[in-house]
Design a protein that fits this description.
alpha/beta, Rossmann fold, nine-stranded mixed β-sheet, 24% strand
Length: 530
């Protein structure tokens, strides 16, 4: 019987419903450093958090900002807040302290749950800043001490473990409804100032049914490891509710996803599913120790965040015998809605629509394009955020009826697979013809001297837009004029002449968001050349 808007529906109850019904409380829920947490242990902490929030006077739809490394403490606060009916807002842990002021002011959060090392940098900035913040909750970490910086904040500061110890281990869920707000996720800011997508109580379970079950076929026998962090939409699914809703387990790595550390975690925990981004897969392949690891215990890898270049897909499968399922999702849709399938991947494409979603490719006049023709990608599905917080005009521009305008350019090949061409703002019009930066980048990546590449459009001496490339090359390679010519000729050999980069800038690294997306707007600003 379908759920209606008047029925009680609490996302925390729904995510853990199968665990309770199947009697899986003593099974491992997560692996964290040297400890194994059972479902019973995790649910006790979730209940204690829900009770603790009630004692602090937190009510339905009050916001709680979470700045936490991947850990059981992050998950207990995230799901405990939603059990209480409050709205958790996980944030990137890698931001400058000044950036957090924007999120605190924009969200009007009542509570900040934060790692101590981040708090100590943030606290001095709070002087004379008008905030709704009432409480600060300091999370446990390996560096925690009694030296907590209270400068600039006049409210009470609590310690997670002391606070939790005072709470009951049983809790009754708030009677929320399926279309009530459950959590916010801020966009990664690859094209400008982040905005908060408001997600509803039902959204996690929609993604679980359509993608985790429908595409990945996750069961209680699986163990998931996501290098993408929990504060991302992609990582939140991979690292929590995809496992919990199916009785599986997750591996949590609080440190930065550096290639050697990820290899070591893979061998140590032997997950069945691994989730990463193209930048990480590339870095792992190029690590000097990459050939020493056997990853045959993986049944599949998943990639999202940016399109997976065909060259990386091929090299990974040749080296480890495991395919990478490329897909596209977004903060607004919550997880992947176009994906390759197990055993049927077509490298260089994003695959086909995940059943349960609908996708259209439209031209500038909102008319469907013919197969093979590039256009704007629109998606419809039940996990899409209904609006951006405090962003009326951006909501009207992007959420068009039941459809979400993704801002991505795509075309569909003869087999029905979707091929990514780039963000709408990143497209280049050279000689009156649209050029996909992704297409040029993929060719550059096939050259043995190239590690990474990003292509943008820049005006030439005549004021006409032409492709320009920023390239990271292999160590020991000379960034000579001869190499520039060689790379330009290589692109001409594989693509139409007008697509080759008129200039090539050799750089030590490319600017990226914390999720691994290339920030092409920074390249257009010229910040790497100043």
């Amino acid at each position: 019987m379908p759920v209606t808007s008047t029925d009680t529906y609490n996302v925390t109850d729904e995510v853990f419903r199968k665990v309770k019904e199947e009697g899986w409380l003593d099974r491992p829920a997560l692996y964290f450093r040297d400890s194994v947490w059972t479902y019973a242990q995790l649910l006790r902490c979730i209940n204690q958090v829900a009770n603790g929030l009630e004692t602090l006077g937190i009510e339905e739809e009050n916001r709680i900002v979470i700045i936490s490394y991947d850990s059981p403490y992050f998950l207990s606060i995230m799901y405990g807040a939603m059990k209480r009916g409050a709205v958790p807002i996980p944030l990137n842990t890698n931001l400058p302290a000044e950036d957090y002021l924007y999120y605190l002011m924009d969200s009007r959060a009542k509570i900040l749950a934060v790692e101590q090392d981040i708090w100590n940098k943030l606290a001095p900035l709070l002087n004379n800043v008008p905030l709704a913040l009432k409480w600060v909750l300091i999370l446990p970490s390996s560096t925690q001490s009694s030296n907590v910086n209270a400068e600039g904040f006049g409210g009470p500061i609590l310690f997670y473990q002391d606070w939790l110890a005072r709470q009951s281990e049983s809790s009754r869920s708030t009677r929320t409804r399926y279309d009530d707000p459950a959590f916010w996720l801020y966009s990664s800011g690859s094209t400008g100032r982040p905005k908060a997508a408001v997600h509803l109580q039902k959204d996690m379970m929609v993604c679980n049914t359509l993608y985790a079950q429908g595409i990945l076929h996750i069961t209680e026998e699986d163990r998931l490891f996501s290098a993408s962090k929990l504060f991302f939409a992609y990582g939140l699914g991979n690292g929590s509710y995809f496992a919990f809703a199916n009785g599986a387990s997750v591996v949590l790595e609080p440190d930065k996803p550096e290639p050697l550390r990820i290899f070591q975690d893979l061998v140590r925990y032997r997950p069945t599913l691994f989730f990463g981004v193209p930048t990480l897969y590339n870095a792992m392949l190029r690590h000097p120790a990459s050939g020493q690891f056997d990853l045959q215990f993986l049944r599949a890898c998943v990639s999202a965040g940016e399109p997976l270049p065909q060259e990386i897909y091929i090299r990974w499968q040749q080296r480890y015998g495991v395919e990478i399922l490329d897909g596209i999702g977004s903060t607004e849709v919550l997880h992947i809605y176009i994906s390759n399938r197990l055993g049927e991947s077509k490298p260089g494409t994003t695959g086909q629509v995940v059943p349960g979603y609908e996708v259209r490719i439209l031209d500038a006049d909102m008319n469907p394009v013919t197969p093979g023709t590039m256009g704007d990608l629109y998606v419809k599905g039940n996990s899409i955020a209904p609006y951006y917080w405090g962003q009326y005009h951006k909501t009207r521009m992007s959420m068009i009826g039941e459809w979400f305008k993704t801002g991505d350019k795509y075309f569909q090949d003869t087999d029905g697979n979707f091929v990514y061409c780039g963000r709408s703002d990143d497209m280049i019009k050279a000689g009156g013809i649209w050029v996909s930066p992704i297409e040029v980048e993929n060719v550059l990546l096939e050259h043995p001297s190239v590690v990474e590449a990003a292509v943008i459009g820049q005006a030439d001496a005549d004021g006409l837009e032409k492709p320009v490339a920023f390239v990271v090359i292999q160590p020991g390679i000379d960034p000579s004029p001869e190499l520039t010519t060689e790379l330009q000729q290589y692109v001409k050999l594989h693509l139409a002449h007008y697509k080759y980069p008129r200039q090539i800038h050799f750089v030590s690294e490319l600017p990226k968001t914390a999720s691994g997306k290339i920030q092409r707007f920074r390249l257009r600003e010229g910040s790497l050349l100043s």
